[in-house]
Write a structure and sequence with these properties.
Length: 503
Amino acid sequence: MFISICVTLSSLMTVLVAAGTAYLIKSHHDPCHGVELVWLPQAQGDEVSVNACDYFSDNYTQARERFQRAVQLIPSAKLESILIYKDNLHQESYYMDICILPGSQPGLVIHSSGVHGVEGYAGSAVQLALLDSPSFKTKHSDRPTLVLVHAVNPYGMAHYRRVNEHNVDLNRNALTKQEFESIHEHHNASHESYAKLQDLFNPHQAPSLWSAYASFWPRVVWNLSHHGLASIKAAMVAGQYYNDKGIFYGGSQLEPSTKLLEEWLTKYLSKHLHQHKKDKHDDASHGTHDAITWIDVHTGLGPSGRDTLLPGAHFASNQGNASLSDQQQDEGETDFSQAPSDKYVNNYAQQLQRWFPNSLLPTENSVASGYEQVKGLYGSYFHDLLHEHDANSLFFVQEFGTIPSIFVGHALMTENAAYQHGNHSTTNSSTSPMVWAKRTMLPAFYLQHPDWRRSVLQQGVRVAWQGLERTKFYSSARNNEGVENDKATAQEDNDSYSQSVQY
């Protein structure tokens, strides 16, 4: 009798969840092919009305063509294209495009999209809206230079995948050679947790409607009852470095997207700062600064349609290494299992709140929960490069919420099973990876709903303008005193983080 009741309840729950999944997909599927007017913020408090459908693209090729065309319409803009991957079998090439919009003020704002492939459509739309802004049509306007990095992971964007051409999650892959060696030599606790849930995370066959919806959810219920949602989420998102066909695979070496972006950025920063000093005849006595603000756009976490600003570096282990002595780093005394202190996170949140008051912060919701063990984040990897130029440089993630996280997890598992075990010779069959990617990943990371699109554009453009104001403030000689005060605050924050890490 008891078993019969359990089976009945499980079946009922399966039906309800499957119906809920179908409802979410249907309610968020309203392609943008008409006119969706939205007011976007501009410089000095102005606003302009635009059609959101002009910026949200259906595929990578359309997004790239729109981006290149928009850049070409701005006389002062410069465009560079970097080949990331060439698929000789299908005669396809995938590029990361970089637009430079020179400003008359010192400092730099970097805005990147597509680190997680399919998530790049939101960031691409924001970048297109910025390029269409009247404020950028004027040559060398009164602002810092803006650099737009479009489609960091173009293969993932083109195939509606979160990972790249090697099934690698770029935001778990940004590690040094020594860190990769250490990880592969010493399997950590997150690997063990992931391995216990391997069968749930990585099904061994291509999905069908039955396996993806009807039989999947009872297995989820069973695992939730045995492990708990928090443990499952932490084991999944922390990243793993041993199953190259599994979800959240961090790779075995630095991927081309990150390596090529780092090479380009290193050269550009050196040239940009050299040219700036030459143009302004700067020396140390003038008190000028070149602060950098880096906004990396993602989707999938948090309240639907709302943006949460996440500290791109400060939940990652190697961020703490910046405060270690060379001897401590050489001796390998870092304990990578320790998360930042609450004091540090709160101080960081206060800095974000000062310049981006309209966005949600990680202290206001549970978006960052479960990510304490994550390694290989972009913010950590590029931390030293940014701070070489100014202590007030800042990297953060602007995360736009979509659907509840349990459905996002379902999409990741199902899509990856289709990609690993499906039929790649067709794009139309029920076992085609592309069919499953569109069916699962788009509703999870790229909502097709007018309200969501409007919200992404408004909040994305607003944060970009606020980032320009922040950089202008910290880079201006007029605010030298304020910069020095904030340097002291930054050092206090760094000391707070150092005290939270055990050696």
